[in-house]
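A reminder from the course coordinator: this example appears on the midterm review sheet, so study it carefully.

Given structure:
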């Protein structure tokens, strides 16, 4: 059977990293012997117990961090209420029927990877304002964009490239509301003039057109497609079944109701996205990587999801054995990450939007003199070194202390339950260091 594109990318990345042996070297427990049916039941049971026992302190520490950075459910509910207020305002001001307006989250809020910022600044909740207008109304994207802005008059709004930023006094969030219409609404004649890209066939039903105000044209977007893609990939598994079952059984006694943004440790894909985003934010906060050139969230989400999907394909095909524990899978993904954006001699860096034909998320990497690529490589090295250093520890107290330090989550009191209900937000253990001197050409 032909290997999938994502499996090929991951296999090539593994080869560039030195092969499977090099990939698993940093993991405390080898994966050999974990394929189902290889060992007898008693031996497998002993191995599973060993894996759970050795990885439990690291898994516990990551769970604390994950809990700590989670946005509280009441804040998500407040944002949902704000969606309703915006929709009613549009109905009142623009005389649009209520059933023609659909405001829903996109980005991190829709993929359950929304996290708090290290400096306690307001977090943004991206929303799509999808309006079912006529093809005649869709002929002028700027009029459509402006009409929504006028309807928001009275709120604290700010126009941005493709959205309206709405601030809410006294709330810990702001909403970036992106006006959009179903892609099929745009007249065919405008597809060519606007250079609208078609949606990938699998995600055509959720494709939208948003307004690119600098170009004064429509641009293809598919936030629901991204959400559905992440959902589909996250349902796959790259951890050995016997370990998953034992892990779930050991955790069943402490299960609590979870909030909309809550993610458990065994949800390996979303956990990786959230923790990697937090690690990036901390490195920016500590001035170890440049904020201007940091890897943006959609690139992290896409890279991690492609890597996870490719690993799942290779495991399903029997090319790789499943990982011994979610922690080992996390380390492996971090190890492969710097190899996951290919660079081609003729077109440069390429990271395809999986839902829109021909869109390159890494387009800006090709016109910044290598700054974004270099920053990404530096950050990946820091991430990999931090995870491997924690994984090498054996004392549970040292593991928790080092994990909290790396992810900047020292709190006066720990989280008290799923959904991040403990404490009022992240507590940074070190002061913000001074910014490094800017790099200059020539001899130093």
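Designed residues:
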């Amino acid at each position: 059977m032909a290997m999938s594109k994502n499996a090929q990318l991951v296999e090539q990345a593994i080869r560039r990293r030195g092969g499977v042996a090099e990939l698993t070297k940093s993991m405390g427990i080898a994966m050999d012997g974990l394929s189902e049916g290889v060992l007898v039941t008693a031996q497998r049971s002993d191995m599973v117990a060993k894996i759970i026992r050795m990885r439990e302190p690291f898994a516990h520490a990551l769970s604390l961090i994950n809990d700590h950075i989670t946005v509280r459910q009441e804040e998500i509910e407040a944002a949902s209420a704000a969606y309703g207020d915006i929709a009613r305002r549009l109905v009142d001001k623009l005389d649009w029927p209520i059933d023609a307006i659909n405001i829903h989250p996109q980005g991190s809020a829709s993929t359950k990877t929304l996290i708090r910022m290290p400096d306690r600044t307001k977090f943004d909740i991206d929303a799509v304002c999808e309006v079912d207008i006529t093809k005649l109304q869709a002929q002028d994207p700027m009029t459509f964009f402006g009409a929504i802005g006028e309807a928001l008059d009275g709120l604290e709004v700010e126009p941005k490239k493709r959205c309206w930023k709405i601030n809410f006094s006294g709330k810990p969030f702001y909403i970036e509301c992106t006006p959009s219409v179903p892609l099929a609404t745009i007249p065919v004649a405008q597809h060519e003039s606007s250079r609208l890209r078609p949606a990938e066939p699998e995600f055509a039903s959720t494709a939208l057109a948003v307004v690119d105000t600098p170009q004064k044209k429509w641009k293809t977007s598919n936030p629901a497609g991204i959400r559905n893609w992440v959902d589909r990939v996250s349902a796959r598994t790259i951890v050995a079944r016997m370990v998953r079952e034992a892990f779930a059984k050991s955790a069943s006694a402490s299960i609590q109701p979870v909030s909309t943004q809550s993610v458990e440790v065994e949800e390996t894909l979303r956990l990786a996205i959230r923790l990697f985003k937090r690690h990036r934010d901390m490195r920016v906060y500590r001035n170890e990587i440049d904020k201007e050139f940091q890897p943006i969230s959609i690139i992290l989400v896409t890279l991690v999801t492609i890597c996870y999907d490719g690993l799942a394909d290779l495991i399903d095909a029997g090319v790789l054995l499943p990982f011994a524990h979610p922690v080992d899978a996390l380390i492996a993904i971090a190890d492969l990450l710097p190899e996951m954006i290919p660079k081609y001699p003729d077109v440069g860096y390429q990271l395809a939007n999986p839902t829109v034909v021909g869109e390159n998320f890494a387009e800006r990497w090709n016109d910044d003199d290598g700054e974004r690529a270099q920053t990404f490589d530096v950050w990946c090295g820091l991430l990999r070194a931090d995870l491997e250093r924690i994984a090498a520890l054996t004392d549970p107290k040292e593991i928790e202390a080092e994990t909290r330090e790396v992810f900047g989550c020292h709190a006066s009191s720990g989280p008290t339950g799923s959904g991040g209900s403990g404490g009022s937000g992240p507590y940074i253990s070190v002061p913000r260091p001074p910014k490094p001197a800017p790099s200059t050409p020539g001899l130093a």
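Confidence is low (pLDDT under 50) at residues 28-42, 251-263, 412-444. The chain has two domains: 5-69+236-407, 73-222.
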